[in-house]
Design brief:
- The protein has 257 residues and is an alpha+beta fold.
- The protein has a single domain, classed as 4-Layer Sandwich (CNF1/YfiH-like putative cysteine hydrolases), CATH 3.60.140.
- The chain is built from six helices and 13 strands.
- It has a six-stranded mixed sheet with strand order 3-4-7-6-8-12. A four-stranded mixed sheet has the order 1-13-5-2.
- Strand 6 and strand 7 form a beta hairpin.
- The chain is globular and about 50 Å long.
- The two termini are 26 Å apart.
- The mean pLDDT is 98.
Length: 257
Amino acid sequence: MAVDPLQAEALHLGPVRHAFFTREGGVSGGIYGSLNTGLGSADARDAVLENRARACRHLGAAAEALATPHQVHSADAFAVRDVWAPGKGPRGDALVTDRPGIVIGVGTADCGPVLFADPQAGVIGAAHAGWKGALTGVLEATLSAMEALGARRERIIAVLGPTISAASYEVGAEFAARFCDQAPENQRFFQPATRQGHAMFDLPAYIRQRLVAAGTGTVADLGICTYREEAKFFSYRRATHRGETDYGRLLSAITLV
């Protein structure tokens, strides 16, 4: 099966190529089948590198053009001027660049992958927005890092790719309290769960709200749940519920040509 990623109409822009890759079209087997691009997984490294190379070829780039960070659920964003070796990226959760030919990307398996572009300035970004990163400001850090390269916030287009949906994201009371302690109005992102003392968290809506509140020019959402669509997407939560020892990672990537 060939690589067949998702794309967003909002990012069909002159100098920009992007892709929200699914789990289809790779060489990994078992629980990693088949396009696992996560260097932090226990999958065979050669398979992961081949999968990353296939993703790059789809974007018209060489494997050596791909830069991904060492993700730690932080609010740190970095500008990319030169590509590092696989697995040697900075500890952080967002990358930006104004260098044509560099592919920047993030890996996810339920967290929110957000791709950014200001085509007029020729600046792009990619952020890994899990609940912790979103809460502590990774999206705003990405916008600021893009502005430092000449982008203008009101021109930036941001698209949220496949992410776990509220219907599949049950959390405890202490989790919800973190958000509501920061801002009481965050209560609207939580709905009662069937289990006493639990709630269903709408991470996609929270990410969209943070982007809008930060002044992002255009905010779009593919509206696809990673947990529910097993054939297409890896899911950390689904793997955990099944007692699996590991899980694959989905690559979301963007480049300037």
